[in-house]
Amino acid sequence: MQKRFYMSEAEKKSFYENGFAGPFTLYEPEEMTRIWNEVRLDLLDTTTAPFPESKLNYDRHLDIPALNKIISSNAIVDRISSILGPDVLSWRTEWFPKYPGDEGTDWHQAESFVEFEGTEKLEPTEPEEGRPWELTAWIAMTPTNKANGCLKLMPGSHRTWFFDEKKNIPFEPENKNKRVLDDGVKSGFYGYDYEKLKLDPNWKPDEARGVHMEINPGQFFIFTSRCMHGSNPNTTKDSVRFGWATRFVPTHVKVYSGQDSFHHFGEVLPLDRYTTVQVAGVDRFGHNKIVAPMKQEAPVAA
Fold first, then answer.
1. DSSP letter at 277?
2. What's the 3-state SS for 106-160?
3. Could you say which DSSP state residue 8 is in?
């Protein structure tokens, strides 16, 4: 019988109060490091990738078995379904590297993932008051700490919008790693300026309230993107932080509805190879193209 990882009532209560939960353990650090070393090589071959011409390497869980295994693992899916409900789709995965000297990521919020250059990626059809309809499990592939740029989250901020996530703003890659805040910290978002999305241009978050998610390889935490989040700059000389964001929605959410491509970081990504993955339950709506998780090969007996 497979071990299950549904969240306890106390864990769910904490999530609804704070907007995030964890950290939890998916793999021990040595195992995660081994998997990561193999996956890094697989990422170089984009022949079967959903976006083979893109530099972003989004959604590689669709063609790399080790990543497909992670997004459909009980350790992640049970906890996600504890909040989203029993019927869950994986709709996107994306990499967040932070190299020595890289800027921090501005505080920001999201829900429908307009992402600066377009329209909503996600549209709920049966939202429930008080229950999020999107969640992210952020997985550490390498050690993640304040010095090399760990994520930070603002407890309770998911109840209030501080940013207009549906406003389009320009992609300005020439400004990457060049913007410095009043406190002297380098901050931005890979060429986007979240300051332009503030509902109140004069508002500043209380940095002292931020929770810094320092986690080991193989650990992850769950959060709703409505919860204000960002990251520290990487101030180290030789420590690269690799994080992998795995994103989930209940099946009532339409994903890329009516769209044949989307824009991000100056690229156009066609959706002809794209699909969601049913990681829990069933689909009662028929809104999206869906596939089942890959069948994993059984280990060979010694």
1. E
2. EEECCCCCCCCCCCCCEEECCCCCCCCCCEEEEEECCCECCCCCCEEECCCHHHC
3. P
The span from the CA of 53 to the CA of 93, in Å, is: 17
- pTM summary value: 0.92
Enclosing H/E stretch for 67: helix 65-71
Q: How far apart are the first and last CA of the chain?
A: 22
* Distance separating alpha carbons of residues 301 and 241, to the nearest angstrom: 36
Residue 177's region, left for phi above 0, alpha for psi from -120 to 50, else beta, is left
Range 9-291 has CATH code 2.60.120.620: yes
Question: With 80 as the cut, is the pLDDT of residue 55 above it?
Answer: yes
pLDDT at residue 75 greater than cutoff 60: yes
Rounded to an integer, what is the distance from CA 245 to the centroid of its chain? 3
Q: Which residues of 182-195 are buried (b: 16+ CB within 10 A; e: fewer)?
A: eeeebbbbebbbbb
Segment 122-142, tens digit of pLDDT: 999 999 998 999 999 999 999
Three-class SS of residue 50? coil
How far is residue 136's CA from residue 223's CA, in Å, rounded to a whole number? 5
DSSP state of 281: S
Q: Dihedral of the CA atoms 251, 219, 230, 255 (nearest 10)? A: -20
| Per-residue confidence band for 114, with pLDDT thresholds at 50, 70 and 90 | confident
Residues 231 and 99: their CA atoms lie apart, in Å, by 13
Distance CA 156, CA 23 (A): 17
Note the pLDDT of residue 297: 55
Distance in angstroms (rounded) separating the CA atoms of residues 6 and 138? 17
Report which DSSP code applies to 174: G
Structure tokens given for 31: 């195992």
Question: Residue 233 to residues 103, 162, 198, 201: CA-CA distances in angstroms?
Answer: 4, 22, 21, 23
